[in-house]
Structures are given as structure tokens and as C-alpha cells.
Amino acid sequence: MTRPPAFAQQITFLYAEDPAACRRFYGEVLGLPLVQDQGFAAIFAVGAGHRGFLGVVQARGPREVTDPRREGGVVVTLVTPEVAAWHDHLAAAGVPIEAPPRHAAAAGITHFFFRDPAGYLLEIQRFDRPDWPEPG
């Protein structure tokens, strides 16, 4: 069986009851560039090369774990070698951080968690292991 071509890009859509607050958070606090505003959805680029994106969309209702089209059910991990710098930036911006950065030896990462205005759990992470692919 012949496999189709590899995927060229990826978008994770986050559903929020207050999408305006999330748009401000991703655009102003995290500094992600807005690449498309579709009215009902705002799509931000994550990283160089326009390969990964986060979209913020109006939720159909409050969080319900059983329906992935509502708030919840995902952890967004942003990978950077500058974990401590991001921790300091977010703390200075008043973003509630669950715990300071820590090294998780079993996974070979350094990371910390925080939440966006809609309650999504986000993680800033660095891979401390040589077998993680470099961005390209």
C-alpha cells in the first residue's frame, strides 16, 4: 500500500467561551503572530517556518470532557531551549504558573505548566536528550 505524502502543516484548535481573552493571551503575552483571522477563528503561528499553528475558536458551550469540540481535553506543549526565560516572562506578565521549571529525568526534559484564559493547560518544554529531532 502506498502512503500519501507527509503532512505539511498542523493546527491545534482550542475552543474558548471568551475567545477575545485567548486571542490577547496568545498574541500579546506569548507573542505568537496572527496569520489568519477568520472571524470565528484566529490562527496563530507557533515557531518558524509556518508548520505549526494554534487556532482560537468560540466554544459551543462550557467545558465538557466528553465533547472535544468544547473547552478542555488537550495539553499544548511549546518546545524551546529557553525554558527559564519563558518562565520569567510569563511570571512577569502575571500568568499563574503551576510550579517552577523542573527537570524530569525519566522523560529527559525540563518543563513547567501554566493555563491560558480558557483554562487550557500549556507546557513550556526543552528536550534534554539527543534523540529529539531538531527543527528543520
From TrEMBL:
Give the residues annotated as coiled coil. Answer: none
VOC domain span: 7-127
Specify the protein name: VOC family protein
